[in-house]
């Protein structure tokens, strides 16, 4: 039997539970329960989002997962002690970082932490500034400009107002967001209270309100399962992965952190010493040398806001006993 045989059925895993997996067939969109055997059950061999090949056995009226296709991306964490990767979902191609311009208070550090994960996972990130109908003293332009060197698109929206809200500062708003999400597989991340549920509901045209148990799990504290799930919305797919809500980056080696700040790494590679601390008195530090001399004060402010985030994260991660003993 080969993958090209008519006996094989292409599908995608949308839910999982121990040995049983709910798969959506590619041909007719039916959801079927499939069982995996042997080596496919070891470790993270099958996760939500995986594209698989199924076989159907008439005699037992059962589907079996025969093969998992190569993944385009993985959402994972590293077990420091075992140095193993724990994968929770696969084939996500857009990481949506949702923040608020009013309440809760915007936190640069949280956004930068999620950007680290996006870089680590190899998933394109975008930023949504929500509740912009309440925009007052928040410097939304600066927060967007500081990420320009990363190529991160930033959207100005009000999930409650939708098309009725006209963005006032940024070029990208509700209609551009809808177009960006179209036919993509996205995961939404953000601190509690930023409006994830309202945003997802609005993007689905209200249809997701019929499945509040699914949307609720995207918001902190309203779920009981640790399983991920792939939800089909009218124009895009949503990966709900409760297990990655933590802002902690303690599983990342602090020595590798600069590589997950690619905008800073481009500058840091010119430092005289590999162990440069990137302080003003650090000898030969490229951040304080002629390399940035052609930048305006505003542009430098953008760079140094990212540098401060990097140094705070490295300091926090370095407190982990598993790493500190190797520093």
Q: Which descriptor suits the 3D outline?
A: globular
Note the gap between the termini: 52 Å
Sequence of secondary-structure elements: EEEEEEEEHEHEHEHHEEHHH
Number of helices: 8
Mean pLDDT: 86
- Which class of secondary structure composition applies to the elements? alpha/beta
User: Mind summarizing the main beta sheet?
Assistant: 6 strands, mixed
Strand content: 15-25%
- Cα-based radius of gyration, to the nearest Å: 22 Å
Helix coverage percent: 10-25%
Order of adjacent strands in the largest pleated sheet: 10-9-8-11-13-12
The residue ranges in which pLDDT falls below 50 over 5 or more consecutive positions are 210-225
The overall strand count is 13
Note down, in words, how this protein is organized.
There is one protein chain. It is built from eight helices and 13 strands. With 327 residues, it is of the alpha/beta class. The strands form three sheets. A six-stranded mixed sheet has the order 10-9-8-11-13-12, sandwiched between helices. It has a five-stranded mixed β-barrel with strand order 1-2-3-5-4. A two-stranded antiparallel sheet has the order 6-7. Helix content is 23%, strand content 24%.
Question: In brief, what are we looking at here?
Answer:
This protein is 23% helix and 24% strand. The protein contains eight helices and 13 strands.
SSE blueprint:
Elements (H helix, E strand, L loop, with lengths): L7 E10 L2 E6 L5 E6 L14 E7 L4 E7 L5 E6 L4 E7 L3 E7 L7 H14 L3 E6 L9 H6 L7 E4 L17 H8 L3 E5 L6 H8 L8 H5 L12 E4 L4 E4 L21 H7 L28 H22 L2 H4 L3
Parallel strand pairs: 3-5, 8-9, 8-11, 9-10, 11-13
Antiparallel strand pairs: 1-2, 1-4, 2-3, 4-5, 6-7, 12-13
Helix pairs in contact: 1-7
């Amino acid at each position: 039997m080969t993958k090209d045989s008519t006996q094989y059925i292409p599908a995608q895993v949308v839910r999982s539970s121990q040995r049983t997996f709910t798969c959506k067939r590619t041909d007719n969109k039916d959801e079927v329960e499939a069982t995996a055997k042997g080596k496919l059950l070891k470790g993270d061999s099958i996760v939500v989002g995986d594209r698989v090949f199924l076989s159907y056995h008439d005699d037992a009226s059962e589907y079996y997962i025969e093969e998992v296709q190569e993944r385009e991306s993985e959402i994972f964490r590293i077990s420091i002690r075992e140095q193993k990767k724990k994968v929770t979902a696969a084939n996500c191609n857009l990481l949506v970082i949702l923040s608020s311009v009013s309440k809760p208070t915007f936190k640069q550090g949280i956004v930068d932490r999620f950007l680290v994960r996006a870089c680590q996972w190899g998933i394109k990130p975008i930023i949504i500034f929500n509740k912009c109908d309440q925009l007052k003293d928040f410097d939304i332009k600066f927060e967007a400009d500081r990420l320009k060197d990363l190529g991160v698109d930033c959207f100005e929206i009000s999930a409650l107002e939708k098309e009725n809200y006209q963005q006032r500062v940024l070029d990208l708003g509700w209609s551009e967001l809808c177009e960006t999400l179209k036919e993509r597989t996205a995961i939404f991340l953000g601190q509690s209270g930023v409006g994830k549920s309202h945003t997802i509901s609005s993007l689905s045209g209200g249809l997701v309100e019929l499945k509040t148990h699914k949307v609720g799990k995207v918001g902190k504290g309203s779920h009981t399962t640790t399983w991920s799930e792939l939800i089909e919305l009218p124009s895009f797919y949503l990966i709900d992965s409760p297990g990655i809500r933590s802002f902690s980056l303690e599983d990342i080696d602090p020595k590798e952190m600069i590589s997950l700040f690619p905008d800073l790494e481009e500058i840091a590679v010119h430092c005289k010493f590999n162990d440069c601390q990137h302080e003003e008195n650090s000898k030969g530090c490229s951040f304080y040398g002629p390399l940035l001399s052609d930048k305006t004060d505003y542009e430098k402010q953008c760079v140094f806001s990212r540098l401060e985030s990097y140094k705070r994260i490295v300091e926090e991660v370095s407190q982990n006993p598993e790493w500190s003993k190797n520093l």
